[in-house]
Design brief:
Rossmann fold, 11% strand, 22 helices, elongated, 6-stranded mixed sheet, 12 strands, ABC transporter transmembrane region fold, single chain
């Protein structure tokens, strides 16, 4: 879809507010015609007919009323334009944000966060001018000049002909100059997106830059990028000012020509004129005044559209990035399995996917699952394993073995290239993802805390949970003690990413989320990695309690976590290479036994740590 077509397709988001804006604009134009006629009547009566205040008092009162009504109409039009723009902004932000949610983490991992933030903020704000000003200006340009010509032609066809000839020059030069400005607008938008992305990267990595002595070099780079953006902005402004000057010039020329024709013929009422001017139709002072006052109103919509054309170009530059994101299709889910449990007719009609129908807790199974991130890069090659209901299964393996891919497939962020994943007896591809995710809890290695209160962070999966439920979840996660010791307890504010809390405290808050969620399937993605021994002990105690009555799938780095698993799956090159308990695998002299031999020995008093991610480095 072209940029123009895309912008027009979102016009319904403005709703009735845009129609009201256009309606008030038309009303203002009609009032301007009436105002010009009243002013012409008053001036003609006073100047040429010698009328006094008594004779024109009623006309002055009506004129004053017109001024007031026109002022209110302008205010209402501006208000409606703001409402239209606000509706478009909120609607588009919602649309883009929801689409990013559907695209999922895999898409976001390949995009620069700064560019996406810029698109969701300033990019969508740049569309305001298109819907609030350009579209109404374009519509009024097609209505008001025609109405004025209909009024002027019966009064003086000469002035009407001048208007008709000179009017097209304004949009013509607007397009000619605008075509040059559009490419500069697009370049300016790209520079802005690049600058925003770089700023965000620098801010997020400021600690690293300081430690490596690279902050001064990055400051110079920021200055260079800022200067490039300044230069592109000035180029756009240069063209914009040139365009405005040209439009004002042609509008002034048109008004001047009309004034010349009207003035000479009025002058001819008292003095002889050349024959070619005498051949033109006569005109009265009342007609002349009326036409001269209408001339600026005739060119005003054309000039306004020329000015607002730059708002359209800014919107077009911002829309290109949105179109690119919105045209990106989410990864297609596997076709529903013919043998899977079927949804009711109502459910199928609504979403095409069923809701999970399985006892609590439930098991899951991978059947010959293949997955490739790209051609020739296989992450999973015929993955086969099952997790019985209520069991605790650990996934171990070196980096690149497929552990993270397995988790992302279960979470619904990826779909198998072939094979299928069964939840109970239902294929995951048949399930509604939102419903499926409501049945699982996820505790990652590096949980994300959001700026707000600790209580709100625990309620992430259940925003309606009462404070007693939150306290109970924190107690079970071994987090209540440190939370209640804080000045404001559960209402204590935490910074972005948990600023002000230790890694162990953040991990226990994430564990409290899982307890509050009370999901039958819990996925622990290296939940005890990078913790000190005391924090690991507390988190491990919480995990032990969380495992009761639930199915637990653990991606493990800690040997203590692996030992407690009912079954250990050793992954290698996208396959299950070994499967069994800690004891059986330790005695088998296989991959697992070699990992233990390399990393299982620790000094007295140290935590029992084993990191299979480093196995490839040995």
């Amino acid at each position: 879809m072209s940029v123009n077509a895309w912008l027009k397709s979102h016009r319904p988001l403005a709703g009735a507010a845009l129609k009201r804006t256009i309606g008030f604009g038309v009303g203002q134009g009609l009032l301007a015609i009436a105002q010009a006629w009243l002013l012409a009547l008053i001036l003609n009566a006073v100047i040429f007919e010698g009328a006094g205040l008594t004779e024109i008092g009623h006309l002055m009162a009506v004129l004053l009323g017109l001024f007031l009504v026109r002022g209110v109409t302008v205010w209402l039009g501006e208000r409606s334009a703001f409402q239209a723009a606000a509706l478009v902004r909120s609607g588009l932000r919602d649309q883009v944000f929801r689409h990013l949610q559907r695209l999922g983490p895999r898409y976001l991992a390949n995009e620069r966060s700064g560019a996406l933030v810029e698109m969701l903020t300033k990019g969508i704000d740049d569309l305001e001018g298109y819907y609030a000003r350009f579209l109404p200006a374009m519509t009024l340009t097609m209505i008001l000049p025609v109405v004025i010509l209909v009024v002027v032609f019966p009064a003086d066809w000469v002035a009407g002909a001048v208007m008709l000839v000179t009017a097209p020059l304004i949009p013509l030069f607007m397009i000619l100059i605008g075509s040059s400005a559009q490419s500069k607008n697009q370049r300016q938008w790209k520079e802005l997106a690049r600058m925003s992305s770089h700023f965000l990267d620098v801010i997020q990595g400021l600690t690293t830059l300081k430690l490596f002595g690279a902050s001064r070099r990055e400051a110079d780079e920021v200055a260079r990028i800022s200067n490039a953006y300044r230069s592109s902005t000035m180029q756009v402004l240069r063209v914009a000012f040139l365009s405005s000057a040209v439009l004002e010039f042609f509008a002034a020329i048109g008004i001047a020509i009309i004034a010349v024709f009207v003035g000479f013929r009025l002058y001819g009422l008292v003095m002889p004129l050349p024959e070619w001017l005498m051949a033109l139709p006569e005109i009265t002072y009342l007609q002349g005044l009326f036409i001269l006052m209408l001339a600026p109103e005739f060119y005003a919509p054309l000039r306004n559209m020329g000015i607002q054309y730059h708002a359209r170009m800014a919107a077009a530059a911002a829309a290109e990035q949105m179109i690119r994101v919105l045209d990106t299709e989410p990864e297609a889910r596997s076709a529903p399995d013919a043998n899977a449990t079927q949804a009711t007719a109502t459910e199928q009609a609504a979403s095409g996917h069923t809701q999970l129908q399985a006892p609590r807790p439930f098991g899951l199974r991978f059947q010959d699952v293949h997955f490739s991130y790209e051609e020739g890069r296989d992450a999973l090659c015929g993955m086969d394993f099952d997790v019985p209901a209520g069991a605790r299964v650990a996934l171990v393996g070196t980096s690149g073995a497929g552990k993270t891919t397995v988790i992302n497939l279960l979470l619904g962020f990826l779909s198998p290239t072939s094979g299928r994943i069964l939840i109970g007896e239902q294929a995951l591809s048949d399930l509604d993802l939102e419903d499926w995710r409501s049945h699982l809890a996820w505790v990652p290695q590096q949980p994300r805390l959001f700026q707000g209160t600790i209580g709100d962070n625990i309620r992430l999966g259940r925003p309606d949970a009462d404070i007693e439920s939150v306290r109970a979840a924190a107690r079970r996660a071994r987090a209540a003690e440190f939370i209640e010791a804080l000045p404001a307890g559960y209402e204590n504010l935490v910074g972005e990413r948990g600023a002000g809390l230790s890694g162990g405290q953040i991990q226990r808050i994430a564990l409290a989320r899982a307890f509050l969620r009370d999901a039958p399937l819990v996925i622990l993605d290296e939940a005890t990695a990078n913790l000190d021994p005391e924090s690991e002990r507390l988190v491990q105690e919480g995990i032990e309690e969380l495992a009761k009555g639930r199915t637990l799938l653990v991606v493990a780095h800690r040997l203590a976590t692996v030992r407690r698993a009912d079954r250990i799956l050793v992954l290698e090159s996208g396959r299950v290479a070994e499967s069994g308990t800690h004891e059986t695998l330790s005695a088998s002299n296989g991959i697992y036994a070699r990992m233990i031999a390399a990393y299982g020995q620790t000094a007295p008093g140290q935590a029992d740590v084993w990191n299979p991610e480093q196995e490839n480095d040995r």
